[in-house]
Write the structure tokens for this entry.
Amino acid sequence: MTGAGWLRRFEPTRSRPFDLAARVHVLRRAVFAHPPSWLEATQDGSPSEVAAWLVNGAAPDARERRVLARRDAILALDDAEATAAWLWSRLLTAQHPLRARMMLFWHDHFATALSKVRSCAWMVEQFDLFEQFGLGSFRDLLGHVSTGPAMLRWLDAESNRRGNANENLARELFELFTLGRGNYTEEDVREAARAFTGWRILRGRGHFDERLHDRGPKRVLGRDDLERGLDVLALVCDSEQHARFVAERLLRTFVGPDRPARAVDDLARVYRDEACRIDRTLEVLLASEVVHDSRARNTRVRSPAAFAIWILRTLGLEVAPIPLHRAVAHMGQELLEPPDVSGWAGEEAWLSSATWLARARFASDLGRAAAPLFPAPRLERCVRGHGPERELDALIALLFPEGTTTHERTNLLAHAVEEARRSRDVRLAGTFASLLLLPRSHRF
Amino acid sequence: MDEKHDDDRGSRWSRRELLARALALPVLPHGLASLDETRSLSSPVRSKNLVVIELAGGNDAVNTVVPHIDPEYARARPTLAIRRGLHPIDERVALHPALVRLSELHASNEAATVLGVGYPDPDRSHFRSMDIWQSGRTDVEDPRLGVFGLAADVLHGRGATLPAIGLGISKRPLGLAGRSFVAPALTNLAEHRLDLGDIGPELERARARALDTRTEPDTRDDVLDGLIKNTARQAYASARTLQQLAATRPSGGGAAAFETTCALAADVLTASMGVRIVWLRLAGFDTHAGQARVHGPLLAELDRGIGTLRDTLDRRGAWQTTRVVVFSEFGRRVAENRSRGTDHGAAGHVFLLGRGLRSGVHGDVPSLVDLDRGDLRQAFDFRRIYAELLESWLEVPPLEAGVRAQASSFLT
């Protein structure tokens, strides 16, 4: 399927080629990173073929299977940091990087915090739903997430009973998960809360208890014959506003804060035609004109997670996941602890002096071979240069295959040469950290 | 200044063009070079400071300033009504039992409670209502500028190097978002440091080069480039300033988090760093279920924090030059729900603290019967309080801070 308008397929021309810089842009937007192997795998593909490659992913390799196999051991610990660190390992080893990226996307969309849910297993289960349905039908995803124990606890659904509605879940379902503010009334919230009565947690699972349900028709969004919460969800997913809401979210994520308004309608149409299938919608989006427009490049601020994943996966660095989790939390994005149900504010809000200093510390810790936070990442393994200039160029080629400005390179080189008399490790760490503190390392 | 966003019709790619105008680059802070000077160390006249305390989640106004003599109160709150231990602050209302220091401050004429504060056509979404309270705007869908951020811009323009700071929070609140000055937000002093070890000196030079304004913009969107550079510059500068403060400050004991942050706020305000506005946040007020269990402890935390802030500043002679304003994005529904909690409401109450303000309880006690869809009606627009704080206290024209409100003078 192809879209129309801004969602029509991007057809490269001589003046607008699908070159290395273009592929790097798509990979960064879709999956944050662009290791040489991924660039190689996509080098002969058309925009559509690259989009399909991203959406199809690959099956877990031995390393990813080893990470996944630790599941029971991690859950047995029921420890917040161990769980978050293990999720980080999953994100960093995933052979289906778009699926992993969408796990983060849905964690932001259905933002749920462990500090209130108080069960690592329920949070992991929610992540599993993101993994399983995050590139499938949004209807399935919404239904499972809304009635999973993590969400029921997070939004007080357990205390939403007949004659005793608690509006929290119903309100956020409309405002943050499906429609957006202004597209429903307070009355809709109250009635939807009634429809959701009866859901509670039984032996660690979401359970619908008929006896606690408020029977009788509810009047929601202009319909007056709805009975249960899942009927409300089905109705909402059919609405045009819902398609626009999802389209807006996807555009903000894959195109950025600057985007043509008409693209929302164009993408909403694709989403409806594809019956709320996220994978098919993304396949069209990632091959489309709007993603490939030069005005979409470098317009987003890298989130802490995107920053870390870009560096680690692109360079193939392996780090200990617990210090990584802490470092990303210091940068402002603590996995499993979104600030509230609306998720992380994103974009310019990532930039504050505190979070900037955390980024600087992360960059220098990663760069220093003997950093206490990270076991030696063996930078030299991925650089293999001789002398400051070749080290710098090797790092630039990996991190910025699209190139840097002469000015940037000259400046970095000047100081690398200046420091040539220092030990190789110290010099390399300094060069590495300086590259990561360039403004261009914080946007994508 | 019109902050209204382009309506983004057709194929315009427009948002950051707006931001560009808003930021009016270049944004190098005035007097960055003089950051290390301790400007007002010997100055006999202290400048006036403002501490903003945000109660995030929607604080239940009815159980904070309790209309205990109204028989409707017990009817609306069959399990949550508080009967014992209240602190009357006038003949009509009493403070929650946990608010000991706040009631003492009322007794010593250092506190004012403004009843029924809100804005027209209240929104019951946390996010939207918080946006309104922090931007002072109901007419902008996705506000990007905050009332006190714009005020900080003005103070910055007058030479204050670090006019505003958020403490105990890792991200700058919307309320502190301005056009040119990027207010730092930090959870604690220890976090606000650069520990670069043996690569430190190199990085110092490298990052000075990276931030060199001569960097050729290689993308059309150089607004974002400017924002990133500005953040980095101010991060390095504030890290230096705060390191100096940290060097003089004994590491704190085991006090509760909010109280510790309040103590830090007092230190920052009295450290001659030129800080005029401090933003603090206490979260957890979204009490949909089991409210009694959490609300009291939260208010106790607030009360201890306020006490520490006031006493520390008072000992250092800075309490008379400080105003504190305490707000929440909305109050909660008058009738409790059956989960022994309360749902999102409308109007709430605002506390103002300081010496020399018109203390006492201002405004009529909101009716518990004549409600706005079950919630307290607003009688007093919060922007009147902002206007007063800006104009008479910080001496910043409210219009420049985006607040259009009728003048009022209950503060001074």
